[in-house]
Amino acid sequence: MQPSIARAVAREYERRRQQAELERDQRVLALHARLPELADLDHAIAAAGADLLLESIDPGRPRRAAAEKDRLLATRLRLLQKSKIDPHYDRIAFDCPLCQDTGMIQQQRCSCYRKILIPLLSANANLRQIENHSFATFDAELFSDQPDPSRYQSDLSPRQQILGLKQASRRFIAAFDQPETRNLLFVGKPGTGKTFLMACIARELLNQGRSVLYMPAPQLFAAIQEHRTMLATFNPDNVRLEKAVALYDSLMNCDLLLIDDLGTEAGAASRYADLLSVIDARALPDRKTIISSNADPATLRDTYDERLLSRLMGGFAVYRFFGDDVRLVLSRRKIKGRS
């Protein structure tokens, strides 16, 4: 997990513990103000507890504290019952009583850990513009079931192709931890489902507690340039520097990096070194990358350096998308629905 996410989870648990302690203290103060007799009993019980500790240290001290504490506790219980107050009013009510808001039970992650982790991962995944994409909303009916070999250079229909790509995406998710699992390169014209399937994969992995970062290619290169600029600046703005470092750390170390629309960024020819450094830095078994491009491999070859193309073709499984622009299909559906 990224250090920034781990720190955020730790901060959330710390916030929960502090909040639970504050609420306990406020609850006790309010009851003490309403029932001064209860306040006196609590102070006397605390004093008896201190005496009990002293007796355990000093063998010659008279053994009276235990009996006195029991008497005080019984008196307090009667007062609480008479006043219809919860006998455990002075205990901390943790958000998760299983782990007492620590996230751990006997060196194992508590079930509450994922409930904190996944929203944090989602918030840092930059998926806002594609947050509604998931396998649950996948609609193969948007793709034609008519093969057109001369147009698509394939005997498959667009629907058969996208269903096959969906299965390939699910296999990628299932084998994500396997060292031999290759990165993915999605190529095809706009509107053929590349970004949608990227988002589907991202959503599934986020739900498993993986760290994901989605970045359109222009945004990726801008982030790298900002990081470079901030590090080279003699007296950088601290906020800009912190954001630049955090984002750069995330794109280099997240479990899954999604780079969308490669080849659409301005000055693409000068960007290959930056992309090459990202791909090389992420060439580890526990990190995977998915890249989409509206350009076919031949166009990419004309745009990028040969070393980058060798990385893409050698280290990525290439999947081709084809068919009509599904956004136009959806638009026609809406028009037909209103008529």
Topology (SSEs and partners):
Elements: H1 3-34, H2 36-57, H3 65-82, E1 104-105, E2 108-109, H4 112-123, H5 149-152, H6 158-174, E3 183-188, H7 194-207, E4 212-216, H8 217-232, H9 238-253, E5 256-262, H10 272-281, E6 288-293, H11 297-303, H12 306-315, E7 316-321, H13 326-338
Briefly summarize what is shown.
The chain has 339 residues and is of the alpha/beta class. The chain is built from 13 helices and 7 strands. The protein folds into 2 domains: 3-109; 124-338, P-loop containing nucleotide triphosphate hydrolases (Rossmann fold, 3-Layer(aba) Sandwich), CATH 3.40.50.
- Side by side, the strands of the main sheet go 4-5-6-3-7
Give the total of domains.
2
Distance between the first and last residues' Cα: 51 Å
Number of strands: 7
The CATH superfamily of the largest domain is P-loop containing nucleotide triphosphate hydrolases
Q: For the report, how would you describe the main beta sheet?
A: 5 strands, parallel
Give the CATH level 1 class of the largest domain. Answer: Alpha Beta
Report the CATH architecture of the largest domain. 3-Layer(aba) Sandwich
Radius of gyration: 30 Å
Unreliable stretches: none
Query: Which overall shape is indicated by the principal axes computed on the Cα atoms?
Result: elongated
Strand content: 5-15%
CATH topology of the largest domain: Rossmann fold
H/E series: HHHEEHHHEHEHHEHEHHEH
State the helix count. Answer: 13
Average pLDDT, all residues: 86
